[in-house]
Design brief:
Number of strands: 16
CATH architecture of the largest domain: Beta Barrel
Oligomer: single chain
Radius of gyration: 26 Å
Number of helices: 7
Structural class: alpha+beta
Signal peptide: 1-27
Keywords: Signal
Protein name: SLH domain-containing protein
Number of domains: 2
């Protein structure tokens, strides 16, 4: 058994390792030290300009188009350039400073890891002497380096969210509006990634939700505390996802397999928010990307009048960024028909087809527009289904500026119009209620680094009855 003094030494090593890992939070809190820098990110062009100008020691060849680097690799390039600024032009200095701000914390972590890795015995002894005269044993020195190696492979991030949503709905007589709580909750998520090798990572995402609305809403309807792994926003419980991501460089193929929360403004065609289990493959060595998704998802059909809670889905979509200001997203998907969407459950699968385009006018203004339709049949056993419109869904969104987590006092404003017929639109999220159209004004603001405040007000109307369903939100998020 170790003495109390040795336990203190282990504690010191642990503190040092924790310090190393604490620097893993990047400028964008959702990106870990080992996370990939997305293809097409401005960083590639910036570092390639420096490499072409011979401003980066040991880098003589530009990064090939389509090759994806991790934040660790990008930080190494930026750090190398930072040490070679003597002959840079003013424009190169400005570009380098922008890169340094983006990868500042990644470079800090890289520096600490290098220091630990390069400590020789004499330096270790000096380090020990600073710890109140204590010394590390050879075993503890080796353990400290192993801890540093683990920190290099393990990336941990996440967020804490406080959300308050309320509906203002028409009463049945269509007169006065009533106020109901949609969500009044706290959500904490811890997302971890472990680098298996240069191409593969294992992920574990764990979350906890708790409602503030009342004791009766704290548990799932069956009395359990969310042990299905999918508590709603007004239930308490744990959410847990496990999946692996990897790539086959020679094939230009990326893979994601397991269970995860799919939230994506492109999704497989539209804004999507669901718990998904299955496989996703992304092919494309250059800009043009092809996404194949197959598995099952929870779109809350059983919570909204249907019977299904695991809808099957197969999707094929395509994405092409023409340049830094324009892109297009289009494709098809086949997913289970849902009674809550007035679709005939006996149809089996519904076929959706869509297109979604994005244009940035300048650094401040941008616009998104899209359309989606389906071949869904109306549910013959639901009398209301025959009264529901079957027109294409469409949306238009105008963005001004944008809140950036690493830049305090930045803000963004969005104005959104949505028309989402239940027969044509497969998902229901907080973007819109079932079979509704709406106009939404949203504002987001970053008061301090990695803290995001956002709010919106939605003027919503049921497409076929005109019933009001206005929604407003206040939310605070803290990223780490």
């Amino acid at each position: 058994m170790r003495s109390w003094m040795n336990a203190g030494k282990i504690g010191a090593a642990t503190v040092m390792t924790a310090a190393v890992m604490s620097y893993g939070a990047s400028a964008e809190a959702a990106n870990g030290f080992l996370a990939e820098v997305p293809a097409g990110d401005w960083s590639y062009g910036a570092v390639n300009e420096l490499i072409a100008a011979k401003a980066v020691p040991d880098y003589t060849v530009r990064i090939p188009e389509g090759r994806v680097l991790s934040r660790l690799e990008m930080a190494m390039i930026v750090d190398s350039a930072m040490k070679n600024q003597a002959n840079m032009t003013a424009a190169q200095q400005e570009s380098l400073n922008k890169l340094n701000r983006e990868y500042y914390y990644d470079i800090k972590k890289l520096t600490l890891l290098n220091r630990l890795d390069n400590l020789d015995n004499t330096q270790m002894d000096k380090l020990n002497n600073s710890q109140e005269g204590e010394t590390f044993t050879q075993e503890e020195k080796a353990g400290l380096k192993k801890a540093a190696a683990l920190a290099d492979k393990l990336s941990i991030g996440g967020y804490a969210r406080i959300r308050n949503d309320h509906y203002l709905k028409d009463n049945k007589n269509g007169q006065a509006k009533t106020r109901t709580t949609r969500a009044n909750m706290v959500h904490i998520a811890v997302n971890s990634a472990y680098k298996i090798n240069d191409n593969w990572q294992a992920h574990a995402d764990i979350g906890y939700r708790n409602s503030f609305s009342g004791f009766d809403e704290l548990r799932k309807s069956d009395g359990r505390i969310g042990n299905s792994g999918s508590p709603s926003e007004n239930q308490s419980g744990l959410t847990y996802d496990g999946y692996v991501t990897g790539k086959f460089p020679k094939l230009g193929l990326d893979a994601k397999v397991g269970k995860w929360n799919e939230w994506n403004i492109y999704g497989w065609g539209m804004d999507i928010d669901c718990d998904f289990s299955g496989i996703q493959l992304v092919q494309g060595k250059k800009k043009f990307k092809t996404f194949f998704t197959a598995g099952q998802m929870d779109l809350w059909d059983d919570a909204m009048g249907g019977t299904r809670n695991k809808e099957k889905v197969t999707s094929l979509r395509f994405f092409y960024p023409f340049d830094s200001k324009n892109d297009i997203n289009f494709g098809t998907s086949w997913s289970s028909a849902m009674a809550s969407r007035y679709q005939d459950p006996d149809q089996g699968r519904v076929f959706y087809y869509y297109a979604h385009a994005h244009h940035k006018f300048d650094h401040n203004w941008g616009v998104r527009a899209g359309i989606i339709n389906s071949n869904a049949k109306r549910d013959p056993n639901n009398a209301v289904a025959s009264t529901k419109t079957k027109h294409p869904g469409r949306w238009l969104q105008i963005d001004y500026k944008g809140a950036k987590l690493d830049k305090p006092n930045t803000y963004g404003v969005t104005l959104t119009y949505r028309y989402e017929p239940a027969l044509s639109w497969p998902t229901v999220t907080d973007w819109c209620g079932l079979n509704e159209k709406f106009l939404r004004l949203g504002v987001s603001y970053v008061p301090y680094k990695n803290i995001l405040l956002d709010t919106f007000y939605t003027w919503g109307r049921e497409i076929d009855t005109g019933a009001r369903s206005d929604l407003y939100r206040f939310q605070a998020q803290f990223f780490f």
